[in-house]
Amino acid sequence: MRRLSPALGSISSEQLRWGTPAPPSAPPGTHAGVRAVPPRRGAPAMGKGSAEEAYFQRGSLIWFTVIALSLGYYTWVVFWPQSIPYQSLGPLGPFTQYLVDHHQTLMHNGYWLAWLIHVGESLYAMVLCKYKGITNGWARLLWFIQTFLFGIASLSILIAYRPKHKKKT
């Protein structure tokens, strides 16, 4: 397991709460004034490779915001096109109105296809988790949900992840 800083000793990253690392003068076991959280009673000891088994990384907030707003707008266009203020949306308004007026079926089918693709990406994320040694149930669930909601923005993080493999001797 990787050490976070010399002052933190052997405290693992899973045992620390969010925040900035404590300065080197801070007492061991602290993290920006927050004491390290010991493992729960009855929890298995953290062995080597546990960080790889529980790997999860949240994606970029910018991408997630763009995707959430886009899918939200797409949902609005497909299910409630009569409530959209087309004239208030600038160049997006007339384009959206054209699509609603002339290609409603295509918009509806495209909407469900987009969600079907997200389901496929989520299932592929589960395959990647297994291949990359991510066995922690919560980490796998987080990957599934994040990839289902945000698609390739999440899946690309998992694809880029390179776990440290144990050397065979």
TrEMBL record:
Region (Disordered): 15-45
Transmembrane parts of this sequence: 61-79, 110-129, 141-161
A Pfam family: TMEM254
Chief location bin: membrane
Membrane topology according to the record: Multi-pass membrane protein
InterPro entries xrefs: TMEM254 (IPR028110)
Subcellular locations according to the entry: Membrane
Sorted UniProt keywords: Membrane, Transmembrane, Transmembrane helix
PANTHER family documented for this protein: TRANSMEMBRANE PROTEIN 254
Name of the molecule in the record: Transmembrane protein 254
Species assigned in the record: Echinops telfairi
Gene from which this protein is expressed: LOC101661258
